[in-house]
Amino acid sequence: MMPSNRFAMRMLRAGPPRVREDLARLLTQTVPSSILRFVDEYGVAIRPLFDNEDFPDVSAALRNVGFLQAHPIQPPGLYVRNEKTLYLRSISPLVVGHELIHALDDALGGGGSYYSTRDVAIGVAFTSATKWVTPYAGENREEYFAECGRAMLGMNDPELTSWPVVNEARLRSVDRVMWRIMLELFERVALSEPS
Asked: Which of 52, 76, 126, 194 has its CA 20 to 30 A from that of 68?
């Protein structure tokens, strides 16, 4: 078994067996093993939902979140920081990549807060950006980080959204500053010592 597959399988919790297999394959084929190792060592879990489940059914933290009850259409995925868990209604590469980068942001931050909310360089890059890699990247620093990281992974799903297809080349062309920051962070993760 490849190391990246070992990390992917260890992070997967419950959910439909076929979905877990497909998800492990997606992660193994698209995400560098160093990133999977880093979030796995931080304790991140990935929990795909069964068809009859909603987020509040599987997450204690989400049971009391008014946003979810107030919106009849729930998002395709959520990362819950205090549970260190990606909850997935969809295993679209776009959704998985975006939520996995939120987990990476949390792991880089060490649990106190997202790294992207504390890092000065990311704050400057966000406030001075003149173009976004996707429209959602302009929402806030956390979504900016997640969408730029997803671009670095090249995880897309043109059938799910009308957003532009993202990859490292697109990020480099629209936001060279954040591209350099993401390159440095991905290298830092790759060079980090396993626990």
From this structure: 126
